[in-house]
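User: I'm preparing a small set of examples for a lab meeting where we compare how different chains pack in three dimensions. I only have the primary sequence for this one, and I'd like the structure in token form so I can line it up with the others. Please keep the answer compact; I'll paste it straight into my notes.
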Amino acid sequence: MKIIAVCGMGIGTSVLLKMNAEKVLRQLGIDATVDATSVAIARESRDAQIILTTPDLVDQLQGLPSEIVPIEHFFDLEEITAKLSASLL
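Assistant: Understood. Below is the structure token output for the 89-residue chain.
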């Protein structure tokens, strides 16, 4: 499974979200690849099953074949766990 964490430039928020998503996936026992990327690159992606992003970027990612999961607080592992669990389990 492939998950991408997306922010405007692909070097800040997306990296934090990637690291925390990987922690959550390990705790859930789910094998997935998580990549951090920019909106521009994400819009060209067609192989990710899930896109994790901030709520303000959701509109820019609409129309992709991936499920878009907005995360309000990137450091809140409980939020990430709940939202990933709902999407994956």
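A couple of notes for your slides: The domain at 2-88 is CATH 3.40.50.2300 (Rossmann fold). The CA atoms of residues 59 and 68 lie 10 Å apart.

User: Perfect, thanks.
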